Amino acid sequence: MQALGIDIGGSGIKGAPVNVRTGELLAERIRIETPEGAKPQPVAEIVAEIAKSFKWKGQIGIGFPAPIKRGIVMMAANVSKKWIGLNSDELFSSTTGCACKVGNDADVAGMAEMAFGAGKDQSGTIIMLTLGTGIGTAIFYNGHLLPNTEFGHLKMKDEDAEYRASAAARKRDGLSWKKYAKRLNNYLNEMEKLFWPDLFIIGGGISKRHENFLPLLDLQTKIVPAQFQNEAGIVGAALFSQEK
Ligand code: BGC
């Protein structure tokens, strides 16, 4: 069983065909820059271009950086506001000519980690966080996802946590790893107090460099990097396309 997994991010749109039984990428992923402003039609056209490059005709799963209910985009923090209220399943399906199913990017990345990665065979409360342009959260209890949680928007010092502790915030503010780890620690401490999780899984592009900041954190909860690192979004999107 295969599906094309697409991960739409603030800076890049990535995709690859995935074996949904094993979580393996079946070809090298393609990455195209997210078009300026990330408006609906230009983004959909990039997804269609990626599908075309793989001569794809089957199902497509898409991780999108916003809460999504039955395909409808509910809010837009890091993409154009034109997405709000739009049926994204329909937009991507009509533009690509393939059946598309869209879910929140962090939720689908979490699904990949729970199925095949750092959360495999783990029970209790597990929080997957994606640190990228924003902060995405996916919360699982005994393997069940509570969808569309938006704890990247938790307020810290009157600002959204993602504004202070995302990977983009580290770059924007030119933070050393030590300073960045301190901000992330404050945020994760807050999350600990709210959820008492058993495990944090850290994903997003920055997770490739986990050795630079995970050892600097001082938390009660065990914390590990995502096993798929930056590919969790692609694998999870493909898995999500198979859900009823
Ligand atoms: C969005 C979330 C998304 C996260 C990571 C946030 O700004 O509101 O829906 O999961 O960024 O992309």
- Unreliable residue runs: none
**Beta strand %:** 25-35%
The run of helices and strands is EEEEHEEEHEHEEEEEHHHEEH
Number of alpha- plus pi-helical segments: 7
Number of domains: 2
Give the overall pLDDT as a whole number: 97
Shape category:
globular
Fourth CATH level, the homologous superfamily of the largest domain: ATPase, nucleotide binding domain
> In terms of structural class, how would the helical and strand content be classed?
alpha/beta
Percent helix among the residues? 25-40%
Tell me the distance between the termini.
15 Å
CATH level 1 class label of the largest domain = Alpha Beta
CATH architecture of the largest domain: 2-Layer Sandwich
Biggest pleated-sheet summary = 6 strands, mixed
Ligand list: beta-D-glucopyranose
Characterise this structure.
With 244 residues, this protein is α/β, with parallel strands linked by helices. The chain folds into two domains: 2-107 and 232-240, Nucleotidyltransferase, domain 5 (2-Layer Sandwich); 121-227, 2-Layer Sandwich (Nucleotidyltransferase, domain 5). The chain has helices spanning 40-53, 88-96, 105-116, 161-165, 167-172, 177-195, 232-240; strands at 2-8, 12-19, 24-25, 30-33, 60-64, 68-69, 72-73, 100-104, 125-131, 135-141, 144-146, 155-156, 159-160, 199-203, 222-225. Strands 1, 2, 3, 4, 5 and 8 form a six-stranded mixed sheet that branches. Strand 6 (68-69) and strand 7 form a beta hairpin. Helix 1 crosses helix 2 (88-96) and helix 3 packs across helix 7 (232-240). The longest helix has 19 residues, at 177-195. The model has no long low-confidence stretch (mean pLDDT 97). Beta-D-glucopyranose binds at residues 65-67, 77-78, 104-106, 130, 132, 134, 136, 150, 152, 162. Beta-D-glucopyranose is lined by residues 65-67, 77-78, 104-106, 130, 132, 134, 136, 150, 152, 162.
